[in-house]
Automatic annotation (TrEMBL):
GO terms for molecular function: pyrroloquinoline-quinone synthase activity. It comes from Actinoplanes awajinensis subsp. mycoplanecinus. It catalyses: 6-(2-amino-2-carboxyethyl)-7,8-dioxo-1,2,3,4,7,8-hexahydroquinoline-2,4-dicarboxylate + 3 O2 = pyrroloquinoline quinone + 2 H2O2 + 2 H2O + H(+). SUPFAM superfamilies: Heme oxygenase-like. The keyword Oxidoreductase applies. The lineage of its organism: Bacteria, Bacillati, Actinomycetota, Actinomycetes, Micromonosporales. It is an enzyme of class 1 (oxidoreductase). This is Pyrroloquinoline-quinone synthase. Residues 15-222 form the Thiaminase-2/PQQC domain.
Length: 231
């Protein structure tokens, strides 16, 4: 006998209940926000996160490509533009380059990915493949880590300004631009997943997708923590 689907409220609660798996509770993240990281460790985090940032427009484009609903495609396409920018030198990737400059990362070293760990590469490539190959609703559900991210990004800016006064102020542009956008995106995505995932199987697949995404983010921090900083 097939299981009954969760109610909308119970489904939302099950997704939100994954918050303890988010990477804000990782030991490295706690040290990062407590002011206990060296400049080299912060540069390692920025360099490895750069590799993650570079696939976001592509994974969002995969969701657009796999989604049969034009109203969703139009809304989701905004995420591609946010990261790639409407023009060269604009958008989330450009802002991340500014952050790399602000923490003293060599631009050439960032772009040739010499500091990207194999653990980060494996996790990020796996996430991109997941979004390209799984049903679009699962890929959208995996993006629901954005439910947990606005508060963390705001706390990061405050903590870094307090503990790492050597970071140049213009490096915070990414977080300042992203926080209001991700708040709106999170609510939209939650409503979308709650509406589109109607059967018990679809709901469990969405919960598994979000669980997988938390594993991806945790694996990135495991790798960064192991790296112990970069020049």
């Amino acid at each position: 006998m097939a299981a009954d689907p969760l109610s909308r409220d119970a489904f939302a609660a099950a997704l939100r209940a994954l918050a303890p798996r988010y990477w804000d509770r990782h030991p490295f993240h706690r040290r990062l926000h407590a002011g206990a990281c060296t400049p080299g460790e912060i540069r390692s985090w920025v360099a490895n996160r750069w590799y993650y940032q570079t696939i976001l427009a592509r994974k969002n484009a995969a969701i657009v490509a796999n989604c049969p609903l034009p109203e969703v495609r139009r809304r989701w396409l905004e995420r591609v533009t946010f990261h790639d920018g409407p023009h060269d030198g604009e958008g989330g990737l450009a802002d991340w380059l500014a952050l790399a400059d602000a923490v003293g990362l060599d631009r050439a070293a960032l772009l040739d990915e010499r500091h990207v760990t194999r653990g980060t590469r494996f996790a990020v490539d796996g996430y991109l493949h997941f979004c390209q190959s799984r049903p679009w609703t699962e890929a959208a559900a995996a993006a629901l880590t954005e439910l947990f991210s606005p508060q963390l990004m705001a706390a990061r800016v405050t903590a870094w300004q307090q503990h790492y006064d050597w970071i140049k102020p213009d490096g915070y542009a990414y977080f300042q631009h992203r926080i209001p956008v991700v708040r709106a995106d999170a609510q939209y995505t939650l409503d979308l997943v709650l509406t589109q995932c109607r059967t018990a199987g679809e709901q469990q697949a969405a919960i598994a997708a979000l669980t997988f995404k938390t594993e991806v983010l945790g694996a990135i921090l495991d790798a960064v923590d192991y790296q112990k900083g970069v020049p």
